[in-house]
Specification:
The structure is a single chain. This protein is mostly helical. It is 82% helix and 0% strand. It has one domain (3-19, 29-59). The protein contains 2 helices and no strands. The two termini are 22 Å apart.
């Protein structure tokens, strides 16, 4: 398994966790919990963006992703 593949799986896992947190924030009536869920989801979305940029870089560096 390549680093790019592992990174892709990690991104998918984080996106899933962020979606769960967003869902929790919609379901709860506790405003403090709602804010915490939303903040954590936002941080995860930011992490996904960073990892996607890293993934693009890695795919540009790994020979099997290069187009000749």
């Amino acid at each position: 398994m390549t680093v790019a593949t592992q990174l892709q799986q990690t991104i998918a896992s984080i996106q899933s966790a962020a979606a769960s947190l967003k869902n929790f924030s919609l379901q709860t009536q506790d405003q403090q919990a709602k804010q915490q869920f939303q903040q954590l989801a936002k941080e995860m979305d930011n992490a996904v963006q960073s990892l996607q940029q890293r993934q693009q870089y890695i795919e540009g560096q790994e020979p099997q992703y290069r187009q000749s």
